[in-house]
Amino acid sequence: MAVTRVVIIGAGFAGLNAAKALANRPGIEVTLLDRANHHLFQPLLYQVATAALSPADISAPVRSVLRRARNVQVLMADAQRIDPASRCVETDAGAFTGDYLLIGAGATHAYFGHDAWEPFAPGLKTLPQATAMRARILRAFEQAERCSDRTEQRAWLNFVVVGGGPTGVEMAGAIAEMSRYTLARDFRRIDPRKARVLLVEAGPRLLPAFTERSSARAQRDLATLGVDVRLGCAVTEVAASAVTIGAERIATRTVVWAAGVRASPLAQSLGVPLDPAGRVPVTSGITIAGNDRVFVLGDLAAATDPGSQRPLPGVAQVAIQQGRHAAACILADQRGAARATFRYRDKGQMATIGRQRAICEIGALVLGGRIAWWLWLLVHIMGLTGFRSRASVMLHWGWSFFTYGRGARLIVGREAG
Amino acid sequence: MAVTRVVIIGAGFAGLNAAKALANRPGIEVTLLDRANHHLFQPLLYQVATAALSPADISAPVRSVLRRARNVQVLMADAQRIDPASRCVETDAGAFTGDYLLIGAGATHAYFGHDAWEPFAPGLKTLPQATAMRARILRAFEQAERCSDRTEQRAWLNFVVVGGGPTGVEMAGAIAEMSRYTLARDFRRIDPRKARVLLVEAGPRLLPAFTERSSARAQRDLATLGVDVRLGCAVTEVAASAVTIGAERIATRTVVWAAGVRASPLAQSLGVPLDPAGRVPVTSGITIAGNDRVFVLGDLAAATDPGSQRPLPGVAQVAIQQGRHAAACILADQRGAARATFRYRDKGQMATIGRQRAICEIGALVLGGRIAWWLWLLVHIMGLTGFRSRASVMLHWGWSFFTYGRGARLIVGREAG
């Protein structure tokens, strides 16, 4: 039997699940490339940025996850260019050619033409960004405590979160809880509870992917935590010491950017027209048009649900199911069988606002509050890779639940975590 | 009653224990300055550098440790100059003057006039250094796996640890165990078990502070793990791709510097003659000569045990006891009582070599092997600050014990942890 070589770019939810589905299959050889050495459980990244969890709690070494997959070769390499016709990827560790190419290079945050805002309003997509944001938030309180000037002190205690999607809602809720509970009695000159958290959303409601009822609930829950939610407000300027929202100028030193994503620039080398977010339009078989051996998966793909004809959201479940589907297609080709049609099974969506406050939508079922929060906890614990991560996250969450503490309150410059 | 103002520099073992001993004492006001926001449990730093623990596991936010000490003001500030006569510290957050000054600014690693070696042979004193070293060690295996050139591959798999003190012994043992067990089956092109770990010590034996019997035991244990121990060998050159030991040139990309410490440069501003390691000679009352309100503590001090007349070692117990003693002196002065004499109570010393291998010396009792290792575990768990750190370390150690895994295998550039 001829060997089928599969090259996978990216060990995110799509790439890792494709590799797992191809593990130890006879006649298949997989090369999995990622520029990091670990798979990141991105849904909990905001918990690293807000000092609740450590980077290692939400990461798993790709090699160790795939240890028993003897036909999978993991390499730490940075993909730089792709030639879809020859299915060749150029990386800093040489070129790799496969019979199949699976591209799951993901997305980064975007500033819609305002790249100059980035240093003042960092985004949250990677571990270094999360630990840098953690340092930024914690340092703001330290600076406020050091300050003698009242105006400057106020500016350090103003936090602005831009973007009302799940990340923005979760970050705003977590910063508010940190200031209200975790840090409340730790300072002598300032009262951290007086920190002001602003959540700015340009659209008419928070969490636009959810039902209006859930949006309203999230807004109410955030208000209870003291978050100042501004809807229909566009940020017109971000500078080192202030954010401008319409006519209002808010003095702040800590801005979190959760307003937009843009697909990896790797998409550009595919030579196909991209959508406005830089994503690659894919066929109903999640391949690029005219080349059914090049799959584009996860956040990098602009895919449409064949059933509802609605665009698929940029969530873990889409990436996981697409990764598994691509693997199934390769195995079908190997057998000479017809490929199955990709159907996205919507398992629902959830977002957490704070302690015992979350929203869940599973089909027609809409949950909020305490039940939704415990369900959120359960789903995220189960989603983590491996016993160690699960046990560690449970331990730290359990400790936080009873003490209101956050265990990873580390400021370590730009260098460590 | 007049208020006594105490300024403490450094929230290490000395400073933190002094602050705790002065907590909520009437008539005392403490300002504790540190450039970090956390107290670091340095004895376990090598476990972060070798991917066994996360930075947050061995750190505790100084503010949260001293939350209930209402008379202690914690400030994140970098001390730059000290005037011992006026007991004034200049920092990047302004100047602070106390009736008493407690200086516990610690030490950093030193290259004995070979500062050019630092980029190739980093030391291990801070969290950013530990996460950078972890990335360096893990990346070496990744690079070896990527390599097609056999000679280069070998160079990536050579690890050189310089210095046979506790840190050097622990690092060499941990790197050997990682390659023999943790990573053994994770690679496809290389066999990590063939990694070569060299431990180079200029003196005639390892762990010179221990008895000869313990030194011999440590050397035997390291040999069992496959560590190549070189005694009486001085490193004469460290470059980007090789280390020269006497006449031998060893190709390597990963050098760990554990050969020397030097006291913080802050000591220089005290205007007293320093010892060759840059430390401040102190009186039997751990103050500088001629000024009994300026205490110098921990690794910054060159102190002599009044009983044995031997120099006190740079270990946590010395710093803890000195910090408490300084606090007791201030309280005695406040009462108008005579200060007690400082006596170092030697609780023994221990070092770990690897799994179920350690050495302990408590008075005349010399232990090795399994019993010493379990004792080492117990003492270090107890030494950690707070329930969360203890529980987290126990969880990760327990998991590692049963799986031979290391949970924090993260390469996150120079930026995160």
Structure in words:
Two copies of one chain form a homodimer. With 417 residues, chain A is α/β, with parallel strands linked by helices. Chain A is built from ten helices and 25 strands. Chain A has a six-stranded mixed β-sheet, covered by helices on one side. A four-stranded parallel β-sheet of chain A has the order 13-12-11-17. In chain A, strands 6-7-8 form a three-stranded antiparallel β-sheet, with no helix packed on it. The longest helix of chain A has 20 residues, at 127-146. The radius of gyration of chain A is 22 Å and the shape is elongated. Chains A and B meet through β5, α4 and α10 of A and β5, α4 and α10 of B.
Question: Helix and strand layout, with pairings?
Answer:
The structure is a homodimer of 417-residue chains.
Chain A: E1 4-9, H1 13-22, E2 28-34, E3 38-40, H2 45-49, E4 59-61, H3 62-65, E5 72-76, E6 79-83, E7 88-91, E8 94-97, E9 100-103, E10 107-109, H4 127-146, H5 150-156, E11 158-162, H6 166-182, E12 196-201, H7 212-224, E13 227-231, E14 235-238, E15 242-245, E16 248-251, E17 254-257, E18 261-263, E19 280-281, E20 287-288, E21 291-296, E22 301-302, H8 316-335, E23 349-354, E24 357-362, E25 365-368, H9 369-383, H10 387-403
Parallel strand pairs in A: 1-2, 1-9, 2-5, 9-21, 11-12, 11-17, 12-13, 19-22
Antiparallel strand pairs in A: 3-4, 6-7, 7-8, 10-18, 14-15, 15-16, 20-21, 23-24, 24-25
